[in-house]
Amino acid sequence: MYIKRIAEENIKKIFNKEKKVMILYGPRQAGKTTLIKVLTESIKNQTIFFNGDDIYAQKIFSNNELNALKPIIGNKKILVIDEAQRIQNIGLTLKLIIDNLPTTILVSGSASFDLANKINEPLTGRSQTFWLYPFSFSELKEKYAATATETALEEMLRFGMFPKIHTSTADEEKQDYLYEYTNNYLFKDILMFETVRKPKKILDLLTLLALQIGNEVSVAELAQNLSLSQPTVANYLDLLEKMFVLYNVRGFSRNLRKEISKTSKYYFYDVGLRNAIIRNFNPLQVRSDAGVLFENWFIMEKIKKAHNTKQYANFYFWRTYDQQEIDLIEEYGGKLFGWECKFSEKKIPSAPGDWQKNYPHAMFTAVNGQNFLKWL
Fold first, then answer.
1. Are 352 and 326 in contact (CB under 8 A)?
2. Does the pTM exceed 0.85?
3. How do 78-82 and 104-109 pair as beta strands?
4. CATH numbers and ranges of domains, the chain
5. What does the alpha-carbon distance between residue 174 and residue 170 come to, in Å, rounded to a whole number?
6. CB proximity list for 338: less than 8 A, separation 6 or greater
7. pLDDT tens for residues 94-108?
8. How many angstroms separate the CA atoms of 376 and 298, rounded?
9. What letter would DSSP give residue 23?
């Protein structure tokens, strides 16, 4: 069952119309390969596919020899390379192809920094970047059209938004998939990086962060708990961001003395993965973390929506030293939007006094498990 992606329309606007290298970034299992197949379905006889995990593909595209590439690509109009970050010198090779052959190129990668480092400089002015995350709620609206809001939210907060989750039926099957993702895909990707000397420590780091959603993170404290140096922990955090596992939100400040701006919060791109890491898929009614799960989920939905609609925004949290706080600050178009996330609607918060005083023109919205539909 194919659920249409918003990125599909964004890519189609230039696919086959401009001779560029189109780069599709996103986590493993977010649906990149499926989307590529959909995009090329009507022209598959004019398309040639390679996978960067394949040794043959690595050998072909790591050598910058046009004469060797010409007979392999032939007269195909579309060249697709999945998991292109695995290939050495891929940026130089793609530049050679796009400059000399009448071929449009579509590459994907599940480690944004690794692929970007290999592609960006050689392909300046020749590439267009797209992002594919796990499903957004707007992409799943049709699936949940006949489902009660509470039931839909329960499934999304427990099992997350990966496509495989939403083509599975049994809870046990969903749990098994997420455990497999954690133990297989995630761990193997971590092992790929030479700078990671203690991969199991990264999983320990993820466990600590999974238990601190919504809290400010101290690198020094994490380093002490993990018996690692602060630079090593900072490096691991950066790595997990660029692997689309964690999303870093910084503190917002206009340099008011009370505001905290130099700390970070970390959210998981997918709450299902977070639940797999802490081994907890219990129903929300018996969980003590339903509130932070909803906060994580809603914040990532806002970020996905901004990317999908090309309404690029900056995202922060806001807190003062006297404990006034707002979960998410969205800044775009010269305006500020504050979002406070509460899973239950029993207590509807109002904007903090210092926020109202110092940002009188900013918006403030209390979002909960009953009214979130309005904003997504």
1. yes
2. yes
3. parallel
4. 6-131 (3.40.50.300), 137-375 (1.10.10.10)
5. 7
6. 318, 326, 328, 329, 330, 351, 355, 362, 363, 364, 365
7. 889 998 998 889 999
8. 9
9. E
